[in-house]
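Notes from the 1:1 (GR / supervisor)

We went over the backlog. Supervisor wanted to see one worked example end to end before approving the batch request, so GR pasted a single chain during the call. The sequence is below; no edits were made to it. Supervisor asked that the structure be written out right there so they could see what the output format looks like.
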Amino acid sequence: MATDVMIEAESLSKRFGNVRALDGISFQVKKGEVVGFLGPNGAGKSTTMRILTCFLAPTGGTARVNGIDVFEDPLAVRGAIGYLPQRAPLYTDMGVLEYLKFVAEIRGLDAPVFRKNLGKVIDVCGLAQVLNANIGTLSHGYRQRVGLGQALLHDPQILILDEPTADLDPNEKAEVIRHIQQIGEDRTVLLSTHNLSEVEQACARAIIVSKGKVVADGQLEEIRSRTGSVRYVVGVDEKASEPSFKELEASLGGLKGVKRVSALPQEDSAQLVELAGDQDSDLRADIFRLAVDKGWTLLELHRESQSLDAVFRDLTQGDEALDRGRKTEASAPSKKQSSAEPEKSSDSSNEEQS
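Structure output shown during the call:
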């Protein structure tokens, strides 16, 4: 393995009874990268994370973190990473500072190192105003910040974050993403999510999985171009020219190079449609001439690279969530849980089983 590769999965597979959760996943994350790990619910994201963090044994394949085989030396792997599962591993009857001290003791940090690292964690995660509060009284957003703090406390160079913004409100999500952006300036981060806007904000590269397989891996611009299409947005004044969507669809769909026409939410009096066209052509002149011929009043016309959302839909189309339920994974053999990761509360039963 190359020395700059911090996370490596090779042909990872995992079965839960008759259900194949992972089907030969392979990828690498290099030093200093912030990589989004994308996929629909049930695509295999959380299962991959649990294997990489030594909480779940695979059916086949290999994985290394910081050059360490996760099966040969799981304790060394756990010492090298910071891990935030979808539900932060918190003791709600503890205070924030008390909990962070407890985690430091579990990690074997001495007092001077703890004090030094604590200051960084408080600053990066925005915990100053809740440091003396009881965790049980905090909002879900602040609990996620505390969970992020425990993952950073031993100053790891590798962070593995599994749906860190799940169930947060928009303001809380924005704050957590801002913290991840700051953290990613000098660390390697693997961020699992199905929120595409978060990936576009925090990551330069993405890995997309579907049905337990990697279907795309590359820089965001490379992935956007995977479908070989560009996106056009056309807005027509509905009041002035009164074209129906069916008329727009038939007329625009008849232009050479148009692959697909779909409706967008209407804005004021503008009837908006989205076109997918060949990447090597520019249809704007043809669209303008068609509008003139039809007597449409154009309010909007622009061309852009295919959105990540559209590419994601194309790559994962027809992907069905793996519905194996809590009992299936609970019955699967897994490695002993780290003492730094307390047993989840009953809330964890809602966690994505992927």
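Supervisor's comment: The two ends are 27 Å apart (CA to CA).
Batch request approved.
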